[in-house]
TrEMBL record:
It comes from the Eukaryota. Residues 1-119 form the FAD-binding PCMH-type domain. This is FAD-binding domain-containing protein. The keyword Lipid metabolism does not apply. Keywords: FAD, Flavoprotein, Oxidoreductase. InterPro entries: FAD-bd_PCMH, FAD-bd_PCMH-like_sf, FAD-bd_PCMH_sub2, FAD-linked_Oxidoreductase, Oxid_FAD_bind_N. Pfam families: FAD_binding_4. GO terms for molecular function: FAD binding; oxidoreductase activity. Belongs to the oxygen-dependent FAD-linked oxidoreductase family. It comes from Massarina eburnea CBS 473.64.
Length: 377
């Protein structure tokens, strides 16, 4: 338990030990001085524990290294009977696999050893665009997904809001103007235009403090997945936009339409590192999400209704177009979604068997009121 929010590194800088309560910005700050980082979170204040049990991911070069949880060397965990044990590639290998995306179903993780990656100095550029540029940006984004995302040195953050749209171009090494991002360079930004910046991952993460909603009274995410399909992206965006504006006008809620790329290399990278329960297919994907932030509980149904209708439309249109994928990313899923079931029947059964083995009294199914529990999957 001493590791609650601590971060240390071993002598040869290959492994960082991180407490589950550590915020990602503190992890990057500690590792920055050693010239390395880990595959972790974007939001500086997000905690490492829950993030990792949901597999964790995105732009910390997931395309190259796999999900964050694929880069765990060892979990220290307290089981339901009070035993402190370790799960890694040699010991409790079934539990190790289950913890890489299986959620809060197996025990309390008290410490994680993470393989470091040799990334510190990076290039990035932020751009803010008028919301009427969203269709042009969606097209640029899909073009980058099809042509540019196979260069796993780069990734793109893309968040459409009601008034402005944000695009972050992120490159995992120093650069001038990475060529894979070409589809974005000629789209006019709101002045002052974002400055291409050579800096560090730690600085970038500091700048991303605007992600999320610390301080907002009520918050929700929601997840949906599809293959790369620019028409689907556009159709769902056009469906969402007037409804989102109406919900904003009625409740004051801040709502976004978020694109998160998962290149096909993620599946191979995960497999190479021992696999995880998520059952990700080896194809370029979009893990769509939305953030909803509002203040009044009386508006819960109105605000959440927007994202529910949007993911229903995503599923309907995606199925009709053959681009829908059932996978739901736990870290972006809403409380009524069922990410564990989306991993596929076989993986779900395996997770249940592992939970029964390590928690025979099913303590963690019974004492937890919330979270994505296998008993409810
Ligand atoms: C601003 C912001 C940015 C985000 N950015 C990203 C991102 O870039 N990538 C991404 O993948 N996700 C991202 N997320 C989602 C985030 O990963 C999830 O919200 C995650 O659950 C956060 O973990 P936590 O420990 O802080 O949360 P909690 O709500 O405390 O925990 C989530 C679940 O995990 C369980 N849990 C937590 N710690 C432990 C432990 N030590 N042992 C056993 N069970 C535990 C809890 O019981 C709960 O069920 C972001 C979220 C926010 C708010």
């Amino acid at each position: 338990m001493q590791y609650l929010d601590q971060v240390t590194i071993n002598d040869d800088k290959s492994v960082a030990t991180v407490g589950p309560g550590s915020k990602w910005i503190n992890v990057y700050k500690t590792l920055d001085q050693y010239g390395v980082s880990v595959v972790g979170g974007r939001g500086p204040t997000v905690g490492a524990g829950g993030f990792m049990l949901g597999a964790g991911g995105y732009f910390h070069w997931t395309g190259k290294y796999g999900m964050a949880a694929d880069n765990v060397k060892d979990f220290e965990i307290v089981l339901a009977n009070g035993t402190i044990t370790n799960a890694n590639a040699e010991n409790n290998t079934d539990l190790f696999w289950a913890l890489k995306g299986g959620g809060p179903n197996f025990g309390i993780v008290t410490k994680m050893d993470l393989y470091t990656i040799p990334i510190r100095n990076i290039w990035y550029q932020f751009g803010t665009y008028d919301s009427n540029q969203a269709p042009a940006l969606i097209e640029a984004y899909a073009k980058w997904q099809n042509d540019g995302a196979s260069d796993t040195r780069g990734t793109v953050g893309f968040v459409i809001g009601l008034e402005t749209t944000f695009v972050g171009l992120f490159w995992s090494e120093p650069a001038e103007k990475p060529e894979p991002f070409a589809p974005f360079y000629n789209i006019t930004q709101i002045e002052p235009a974002g400055t291409p910046t050579n800096s560090t991952l730690m600085e970038l993460t500091n700048q991303l403090a605007f992600i999320g909603s610390e301080g907002s009274a009520r918050h929700d995410y929601r997840a949906a997945t599809a293959k790369v399909d620019v028409e689907l992206y556009n159709d769902v965006y056009e469906f969402w936009k007037p409804k989102a504006q109406a919900v904003h006008n009625a409740t004051g809620a801040n709502v976004t339409f978020v694109f998160q790329p998962v290149p096909k290399s993620v599946a191979a990278a995960s497999e190479e590192k021992g696999g995880n329960p998520m059952g990700i297919t080896a194809e370029d994907q979009m893990w769509w999400s939305t953030t909803l932030d509002w203040t009044d509980a009386a508006d819960d149904d109105t605000v959440r209704g927007l994202s529910i209708e949007t993911t229903d439309k995503w599923e309907e249109l995606g199925k009709a177009r053959g681009s829908y994928l059932p996978h739901l990313f736990m870290n972006d899923a809403s409380r009524d979604q069922n990410p564990l079931a989306s991993y596929g029947e076989e993986n779900l059964q395996k997770l249940k068997d592992i939970a029964a083995k390590y928690d025979p009294t099913q303590l963690f199914q019974e004492v937890q009121n919330s979270g994505f529990l296998l008993s409810k999957a």
